[in-house]
Amino acid sequence: MFNFQKIHRFSNLLVNSVRYAGRYQSKHNKSKLYKEGDSLKIENYIRFYPRVNGTSIEDVKVADPPKLFRVTRIKKIAGNPHWEKRILRDFGLFDTGAVAVVKNIPENNQRLWKVKHLIKVEPITFPYGEPSKEDVNYSFLKENGECVVIKNVTALEQRLEATDKFEKDNKQLDGEILRNDTRMKWLNNY
After folding, report:
1. What's the rounded mean pLDDT across residues 80-93?
2. Element (H, E) at 141
3. Using CA atoms, how far apart are residues 72 and 98, in angstroms rounded to an integer?
4. Can you say how many angstroms the Cα of residue 91 is from the centroid of all Cα atoms in its chain?
5. Res. 150: pLDDT tops 50
6. What are the DSSP E strand ranges found in the chain?
């Protein structure tokens, strides 16, 4: 005759062992996800793991690394651990939609990697050359990461003449005339 208690106890033990084994095996770790042959070392300290979209190591080697990154926070930080909040606060990204300019150095890259799920990182490019100290007031950063310097800002002579003509025109409605006109319309009900 079968002993149903032993079978039930054995099945519970089997289910629990499978449940715990599955949990520990699904832990994400680079040593488990990637093999040493899959990654390439660049300059002895950067390890390149190929992406799903087909990026090759030749594409990475050809491009010069950018000097600066434009980092934007795109997700909420509620419910995240305190170390991620501290990293965002150190970069000045604690407010939603905040933007920061970060140097491309290994220390900053390591900290950005820890909060990569909360931010968007774009390289800053200089299509018209890097700004000097005098050009800092004339430069601006676009949303796509381009830093543009407008050095020679001059007003057109036609615009200056049109502005002078507009200011000296007698038919121009100033604040006093508009107030009197609207007050009369209010009192007379048209």
Report:
1. 93
2. strand 139-141
3. 6
4. 12
5. yes
6. 40-42, 46-48, 68-73, 99-103, 119-123, 139-141, 147-149
pLDDT band at 160 (very low <50, low <70, confident <90, very high): confident
d(CA 159, CA 48): 55
User: What's the Cα-to-Cα distance from 147 to each of 26, 28, 97, 123, 143, rounded to whole Å?
Assistant: 43, 38, 19, 10, 9
Residue with token string 């010069």: 64
Minimal CA–CA distance to 151: which of 171, 161, 137?
Answer: 137
- Taking the CB of residue 63, how many other CB atoms lie within 10 A of it? 9
On whether the CB atoms of residues 138 and 149 are closer than 8 A, the answer is yes
Q: 72 in helix, strand or coil? A: strand
- Note the pLDDT of residue 131: 84
Q: Tokens standing for 1?
A: 């005759």
Reported confidence tier of residue 52, pLDDT bands at 50, 70, 90: low
**pTM score:** 0.52
